[in-house]
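We emphasize that the prediction below concerns an isolated chain of 748 residues; any contacts that depend on oligomerization or on bound cofactors are therefore not represented. The input was used exactly as deposited, without trimming of termini.
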Amino acid sequence: MGSRAAVAWLSRRDPGYRIIRRAVRLTLIGVLVFYSGIYLVDSTTLALYSVFTVFAVGVLGQLPATPRERARVLIAALPVTWVLVVAGTLLAGSIWAAAAGMVVVGFVVAFIGVGGPRLAGVAAGLQLFYILSSFGPYAPDTLGERLGGITASTLLLILAELVLWPDRVTPVSYPKRLAIAADAVADFLDVLADALSGRVDPGPETSRRQARAGRAVDRLAFEELPATERPTSAGRRDRAMRDAAVALREALDFGDRLAVDAALPGASAPVGSPPPPGAPGIPDSDLDWLLRQGADQIRAAGRTLVGQGRRDDEAEPLRLHRLIEEIWARPRGEAFQEPGLGRLWLDAIVLRVVEQAPILNTAARIVARLPITRVPPQPGQRHHPFEYARRPMLALYWQRYRVHLTPRSVHFQGAARIALALAAARVVAGYLNLDHGFWVLLATLTLLRTSAADTRTTLRPAVIGTVLGATAGAGLLLVTDRPEVYRGVLPVAMVLAFAVGPLLGLAWGQGFVTLLLTALFAQIGPASLRIVQARFTDVLVGAVIGVLAGLLLWPRGGGGELRRSLANYLDAAASSTEETVDVLTGRQPDRGELGRAHRAMVLAEASMIQYQSEQPARRNEGVDWSAVLIAGHEMVRGGQARRDLRPPPYPLLSDEVAGPLDDFAHRVRGAYGDVADQLGRGGRAKSVSPPPGPDDLAVRLRTLLRIGGTRASALDLVDLEVWLICLTAHLNRIQTEIDGTATELPLR
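Result of the prediction step, given as a token string:
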């Protein structure tokens, strides 16, 4: 490969040379603290803990994208490292005490990652501090040197992140992606408003803006972002970003349906969209104006997301919400003596589109840390949108952790797997009295994956890389034992370990880490072949323990839990759908099914995210799990939205009007329950046909209006029926055979 080709390849693999910059920063700090500890302070303990702090950040940690965020994470993690080092130092005198501490530390540190990707990104690095300090010799008197080395190294790393060759290219942030999507969706709604008013013929502009909005919303998929940048934490800003993404997707979906049902030229029909009743109509007069108001507020929310919002605009979402309520509840007028179904259908969809605008605007203000004015709760409303905005941060995180404190959570399983594997490795290394026994735990930590198949996959490149690195180190040790040689090798080995591994993969990373450790310990102790022998032996022992842990402890990983958790979620979501219709039609009180579905959703999403990071299990082939998750989200989020916006007491409905709707909801729940039961048992023995919707909507609307129903109750009836019909379309997608590949987790 020529130099130009090499530079081109590197620029593709490492845009902005972020990995190279990071490796150079880490190397400069690592060399500085190591040699300062040895030659200036004359403390090998301080030098060792200083350089392993750099190692924990460079090899095991996953820090955020921007320098300031990385600095904040490092300073927040520093007190935790002190606690772990103190605990490990005090327990190092007993193998079993150290192993028991490893169980507790291993589980707690790994389980902390449930709170969000940034916590998960530092978890593996934090484990290293307990691992290193829990090995002998038992020396509490060196605690000051250990803590001093960690503190000095961390502070220098923070300084380096801020001033030393900082990154110039960072990924597009999620708020920026939301702002781009908001602008595109607002443009699409503008062209819909023009077309519905009849004053403008949009021509091909409808399809062009629809496609642009679709592409922008698709870029909100989490796989488009680095793991540490995904807004999946329990904090209020990340929750608001997820709500904003859902609102944008809902606005786009309803906009797509509006374009098709209004027969606009060039519009693309959403998959599974039910046909409108009768001939295409036009919405009520002035709803095109309301659609423009919604588009303006969506566009303003985009500006807020990128820091251009006005502090005094906090009442705007409430103003638009009241406009929607006024239009929804206005008198029915002469046109509704014999209701036009096409018009009512489009009216309901337009109002659903615009309802997303105040939701998006409020979420954007939470993201931007601006004050919000929430919509006052209505009578009978148990849940309130954005209630998390005023809850203490610790309460939000505790709620997330509490949901996952069950053996059915993949996060719980992963934390328990790591804790037990590391504890077993600590006992084995202690009783075998292995040289540099902490390398056994380090190998277990770096090689253990969430499934046995993935752990076995990492074994071969890890062993090959270790053999090659040990061979190179042995060759160097046979040539010379002069310390000055290894002082020169150490910086080169650091750059290679911190840069080449991320660029070329696990085998290269293990090889250069082995060479780095050889150069390091050749300067701390005698430069002999025992260093590379110990490294190879320890990695092999650690790899075997990791493989055994993967085989014995939830070996199927996310794939093993996926089927059960998604089947449970689908069943709970279907029950919540039936309950939503019962509650909104006044037939039954709230039985808590929606809360159960929310808890099932959290576990199902976690299983899906982990499954997507693993090798797909063969037993899960043939099922489109993303379609299952989307269907569940349509039921849960759709039911929640309808209860939030129009809670009981409901103005409907006589048995004559509501009876067919209740029966339809019961049949939808039964069909989804059958599919969930078959998925949970391992397959589909028979196909479940989607239940047909009632065919007497026109008759029931006339009955409703004849007995004094309002225009709002007519729109509510249409809206519930459209929702249930759309849910039946998802049944076919769930039961469509696929090739086993998992698509991106939807944000719905």
